[in-house]
Write a structure and sequence with these properties.
By secondary structure, the protein is mainly beta. It has a single domain (10-104), classed as SH3 type barrels (Roll). It has no helices and ten strands. Strands 6-3-2-1-7-8 form a six-stranded antiparallel β-sheet, with no helix packed on it. A two-stranded antiparallel sheet has the order 4-5. Strands 9-10 form a two-stranded antiparallel ribbon. The two termini are 21 Å apart. Pfam families: KOW, ribosomal_L24.
């Protein structure tokens, strides 16, 4: 399996959909499904009927998973979307932003 280009804790920019242009931090990555959960983006609402556990009922809001292809890593320099390349520095494999050439981790 290829190395992950987007990891938990990364800052990403949404490329398409209703939240296009928004930025957020990756809360969860689901590589088998090809999905990510980004904080504050793709918020879904579920209307709940009153139950014994929650007699009030109401609307639950939560971040729904979205396709990993809809997000791009935010460039560390200017915050704009960039692709990721892998390079070897000091014998370690590190992620590098294609746009600016800055290392993302390591």
């Amino acid at each position: 399996m290829a190395a992950a280009k987007i990891k938990k804790g990364d800052s990403v920019v949404v490329l398409s959909g209703k939240d296009k242009g928004k930025t957020g931090t990756v809360a969860k990555v689901m590589p088998k499904d090809g999905k990510v959960v980004v904080e504050g983006v793709n918020v879904a609402a579920r209307h709940r009927k009153p139950t014994q556990q929650s007699p009030q009922g109401g609307i639950d809001r939560f971040e729904a998973p979205m396709s990993i292809s809809k997000v791009a890593l935010a460039d560390p320099k200017d915050g704009k979307p960039t692709r990721v390349r892998f390079e070897e520095k000091d014998g370690k494999k590190v992620r590098v932003a294609v746009k600016s050439g800055e290392t993302i981790d390591g």
